[in-house]
Amino acid sequence: DVKRQDASRHYGVHGYFTKQPWNVVQEYIRNFTQPGDLVLDPYGGSGVTVVEALMLGRKGIHVDINPHSIFLVENLISPVNLPKLAQTYDRIRAQFQKNAPSTAKQIKNALKKYRYPKGIRLPSNSDVDFIEQIFSPKHLAQLAYLKSLIVAVTNKQIRGVLLLMFSGALNKLNLTYHASAGRSEGRGDSAIFKYYRYRIAPNPGVLDVLDVMESRFKKVLKAKKEIAPLINEQTVKNAKIVKGDAANLSWIKSESIDYIYTDPPYGSKIPYLDLSVIWTSWLDLKVTKADLRAEIIEGGENKKSKKRYFELLSKSISEMSRVLKFDRWMSFVFAHDEPAYWHAIINAAEQAGFEYAG
Q: pTM of this prediction?
């Protein structure tokens, strides 16, 4: 049975696209591997595969071309002193409560004083052109001030966890957040996840920055407590988190992987890098032209053809075949209503040397 909300480490920390049910992934890893085996996910996304591999005493390699994916997973699994984390958060919360810009004059001054992303272009199907236009001046000023407090934290692990909290709140604190009719303002949908584009809400849910942060911090803290017994200073060394291209795994030795569980992009459904601008811009994460060219999707701002998508997907399947040990398993999760996609995947897998088993 699919369980989604039961694991704090995957639900509540940070939204992500097409997140796999953690208990399904865990069951597959348990079934196809032994403790100490090496598990690979070359389309790592939010990190469900590598996290569940570590929770089961396996080793894991997480690969994704999206720098935001790398940021999420690294800061989710990084061991941190929880009492010091809570103390630092309390200090920042007190500073924010005291000094957060709220009047028109304070907001104007804050936007001059603190850094925030501006002039960064959104995907062409967005309702506005630039990243700063999806925020109200008040949210923009308060987020800029809050980030300035977080980046001033000297402890790298604590700073990373607090930035994870900050990043996880962004999709609710902007004008594309659609509040659900008849429910509290906090219960709504981000257009990024609901419509897969930056669609300004007719009546945006205007949430309080501190309220959202308080909720997000509690969820991050709960996730950290949940994984701490099994993902710690020693076992985290069994994880390798790599920003890379699924079609080029040349840095992984041939026949060195015990099991692959992966969930690639489904054709033109989600342009991951295009939609991640809200996070990569605030976190100062660089997405290069090379990244956009290598991303295995159909469409997007680079308008990749179906043919090009299949070519890149086939290359990644070939690479997975090369690195997987003989007589071991790959679970390849895919959802599409066009038979052509399924045929292309099966053909590419068979040509790469895989035997289709189910």
A: 0.95
